[in-house]
Amino acid sequence: MIEIRGLAKTYAGHVALKNVTLSIRPGEFVVVLGPSGAGKSTLLRCINRLTAPSGGEIVVDGTPFSSSGRDLRLLRRNVAMIFQQHNLVKRLSVLKNVLVGRMADLSPVLSALQLFPEADVRIALHCLEQVAMSHKAANRADALSGGEQQRVGIARALAQQPKFMLADEPVASLDPKTSRTVLTYLKKSCKDSNIAVLCNLHQIDYALEFGERIVGLSAGEVVYDGPPAGVSGDVIRQIYPGLDDPNVLDAAQRLTERRRASAEAVIAAAAEERA
Amino acid sequence: MSLQFVVTRPRGPLGWWIVVPVVAAAVGVLWWSAVGTHLSLSGLIDGLPWIGDFLGRMLPPNIAFMAKLVQPAIETVQIALWGTLHGAVFHGLRQVLNVMRGINEIILALIFVAAVGLGPFAGVLAIAFHGAGMLGKFFAEAIEEIDEGPLDALRAAGAGTLQRIVFGVLPQVLPAWIGVVLYRFETNIRVSTVLGMVGAGGIGFELISSMKLFAYEDTAACVIVILILVLAADLMSSKLRAMIR
């Protein structure tokens, strides 16, 4: 469980986050939806302390933040991250990039000598299998397509065997079909290992399709926190202030209605079965 | 705990066997060059008695003189405080590198010829001194230009400092570093042909002697050989650079 209370972040006078209160329960897939510059990345980077918050507190699994080097490594081992630009080391092999996910537990000297315990290599290969990339384990990372690189990024995060995963716009630079593949792998592999995901997206359709819970972020504030079925045209107008594109609002409205209808159908079917 | 050595097999039909001839050739060439330039530890070792004599003359230390050193010592601490404040280590190192590459190889060769005598060893020292300054600058610039993203990813995975350097920094800077070394080798070939003119060995010595004897046909031969050397070094380094992409 991640509990965020009153989180605030200010960059040289610019307010990125103000009074964000949020909790992530084990195993759930939460999408943070918001326009560029709403503070989505800052929110994620505060959780694993790639950025230091200006105020508020973040409690991960009951442990408040401590700045000691050892505790920080423990926190980061438990909370993996996926990046928009996947951030693989281009000239290293796919397998070695995934082994990076094991490094918090490995001897620095042995790993620097390129020696890795066989158990860790097996974990890395298994994580590559989860995203269907094990056949490319020996390839150099820069020989892969964008979607494949992001799948390796997911495998690297899975290799940490974390409880939580932060995904910062994982599909922002991918085409629609690849985006759907990557998000499907992300969701499935995390469900299989009961990893809770906090995934930043700016695309409304993917958010509604993949999110089990939507957190709407606008100008550094949470403006919506609830199920995808509750994301109405009004909610979208709140998340994207000034968005007056009737097509987008229409599409969102239709998607939510369809989702609500299918949810109601499931409930009705379940009730019928019981009766 | 059983460990696994995780490295990618070199491409090509030879696989790992390609490493053997490359390493053997590299060792051979270095050995051959060391012999040719009279690179010798014994030269340095022969100087050791002089250092011993110097150290002997320092004993016993003059305790009375220490009273006069209080003021300079305080000054040193003050300098250190301000120096540290300005990021002394990094900046200081950079200034040393600036000085090292600020002095032309010919000047350095003149100095080293005076220090270790005529011959190629003086040339080696001159090029090494100047080259260290150059390489330091280019190496530092390569590190400054790397993509921070993978380092973020390593940090986010809980990797330590050594792991961040080995897996995040080195793979990114290695091609640039090797490229710089090869470029410097190219330049140094050109420079070392000239260093002979001030007595630091190599073909430049022949060149200048032939000119002094008015044997201009010999001079022309020297110029041709120099051109061949420079072109060969250029060709080789561009081939090697293409290989390490």
Q: Using only CA atoms, what is the Rg of chain A?
A: 20 Å
Please count the beta strands of chain B (DSSP E, at least 2 residues each): 1
Order of helices and strands of chain A: EEEHEEHEHHEHHEHEHEEHH
CATH superfamily of the domain at 103-243 in chain B: MetI-like
Q: Which CATH class of chain A?
A: Alpha Beta
Q: In terms of structural class, how would the helical and strand content of chain A be classed?
A: alpha/beta
Q: Quickly give the structural class of chain B.
A: mainly alpha
CATH architecture of the domain at 103-243 in chain B: Orthogonal Bundle
Plain-language structure description:
The two termini of chain A are 36 Å apart. Helix content of chain A is 42%, strand content 23%. Chain A has 275 residues and is α/β, with parallel strands linked by helices. In chain A, a hairpin with a 2-residue loop joins strand 4 and strand 5. Chain A has helices at 40-47, 69-78, 94-99, 108-112, 118-130, 146-159, 176-192, 204-210, 233-239, 246-274; strands at 2-11, 14-24, 29-33, 55-60, 63-64, 79-82, 115-117, 164-167, 196-201, 213-218, 221-226. Chain A has a single domain (2-274), classed as 3-Layer(aba) Sandwich (Rossmann fold). Chain B is an all-alpha fold and 245 residues long. Chain B has a domain at 103-243: Orthogonal Bundle (MetI-like fold). Chain B is built from 11 helices and 1 strand, in the order E-H-H-H-H-H-H-H-H-H-H-H. Chain B has helices at residues 19-36, 41-46, 48-57, 70-85, 88-102, 105-116, 120-144, 148-156, 161-195, 203-212, 216-243; one strand spanning 3-5. Chain B is extended. The model of chain B is unreliable at 83-89 (pLDDT under 50). Strand 7 (115-117) of chain A pairs antiparallel with strand 1 (3-5) of chain B, so a sheet runs across the interface.
